[in-house]
Structures are given as C-alpha cells and as structure tokens.
Amino acid sequence: MLKKNANYFIKTLELQPHVENGFFKETYRSQITNDNRKSVLTSIFYLIKHGQRLAFRKLNYSDEVVVFQKGKSMEIIMIDLEGKLIIQKIGENIENGEKMQTVIPANFIACFRCRIEENIESENDFCLFACICVPGFHYEDFKLLTIDEILVECPGIDRKEFSAILDEM
C-alpha cells in the first residue's frame, strides 16, 4: 500500500517550493476579471511540514478562505487592523476547537504554522490545505513582513503577547 505522506502529496499534486516556506500549486484562476482586469477568484493547494511556519504576510485586497484538506492540524496567527492577535486552529478535531475552514480578511497580517505536540518529527507530520482568494491572488497585492514592519503597521499590538507567540515559533 502506498504511503500518503508529505512527499507523496508534494509529488502527486506537483507542488513547488514557495517563497514563504512550504510547497504550493495554483489549481484554479478564474477567467472572469474585475474592473482592474484581475481574476475574481484563485485557488491553491499548500502543504507545510512538521515545525514549519510561513512568513508573516498580508494580502492587501483579497479575503482568503483557508480549507483543511489532510494531515495534522495547524494554527493561523492573524493580526487584525487594530493590532489584535487572533489564533485560529485548522484541522479535523472539531471537538477540540479546530475548524475545517476559516477566513483571513483582506489587510489582516497572517502566519501559518504546522503544530505537532510531540517533539519527534514523523514523515506523516504535515498539513495540506487549500486557499481560495477573492478577488484572486496577485503577487503585486502580496507583501511579506518583518517583525519590525509588523510593529510599525500595528502600533496597537500587544507586544508582550506577540513576543510570547514569536518565542513559541
């Protein structure tokens, strides 16, 4: 029987390394465009492995629906427009507060991390999810952020709480 670990999904879904970390593939780009001639909807598969986290980033004009697909649960750390920190767990353990999908509103800062409770890395420790952006994802609307840039953009952020989150990463 074929083992469906992270490498299986990377190969089978033809995922490629992403600038943020992890692996991805665009699976759909709508031919319908908005007034700015940009696709109204895009969809990707994304996979992150044990202990990986994506960079903090912001989508300026797109709401992003994140849908759990397979593997271990993950956390999405979001910072809203006022600097409030929101942590959303994505996975199939609904009884433990995880959600199968969530939305990252446009202009929120976000970071994804694959959280594994045990300290032992396994080839099955990965999270595969889909991201649907409306309007569609365009690199010119995407910005990677350093910690210093986050502190400037979000002067209301609770620095102690944010430092504690960073220490866990």
What does this structure look like?
The chain has 169 residues and is mainly beta. The protein has a single domain (6-168), classed as Jelly Rolls, CATH 2.60.120. Helix content is 14%, strand content 37%. It contains 3 helices and 11 strands. The strands form 2 sheets. The chain has a 6-stranded antiparallel β-sheet with strand order 1-2-3-10-5-8, covered by helices on one side. Strands 7-6-9-4-11 form a 5-stranded antiparallel β-sheet, with no helix packed on it. β1 and β2 form a beta hairpin. The longest helix has 10 residues, at 159-168. The N and C termini lie far apart (35 Å).
Supply the key terms.
169 residues, mainly beta, Jelly Rolls, six-stranded antiparallel β-sheet, five-stranded antiparallel β-sheet, 3 helices, globular
SSE topology:
Elements: H1 6-12, E1 16-17, E2 23-29, E3 42-49, E4 57-59, E5 63-71, E6 74-79, E7 85-90, E8 101-104, E9 109-114, E10 126-134, E11 142-144, H2 147-153, H3 159-168
Antiparallel strand pairs: 1-2, 2-3, 3-10, 4-9, 4-11, 5-8, 5-10, 6-7, 6-9
Q: What is the rounded Rg?
A: 16 Å
Gap from first CA to last CA: 35 Å
Instruction: Find the structural class using helix and strand composition.
Output: mainly beta
Please, what is the average pLDDT? 89
Largest sheet: 6 strands, antiparallel
Q: Assign an overall shape.
A: globular
CATH superfamily: Jelly Rolls
Strand segment tally: 11
- Percentage of helical residues? 10-25%
Strand content: 35-45%
Q: So what's the CATH class? A: Mainly Beta
Q: Number of helix segments? A: 3
Q: Based on the structure given, which CATH architecture is correct?
A: Sandwich
- Helix-strand sequence: HEEEEEEEEEEEHH
Please mark out the parts with pLDDT under 50 across 5 or more consecutive residues, or reply none. Answer: none
Oligomer: single chain
What CATH calls the topology is Jelly Rolls
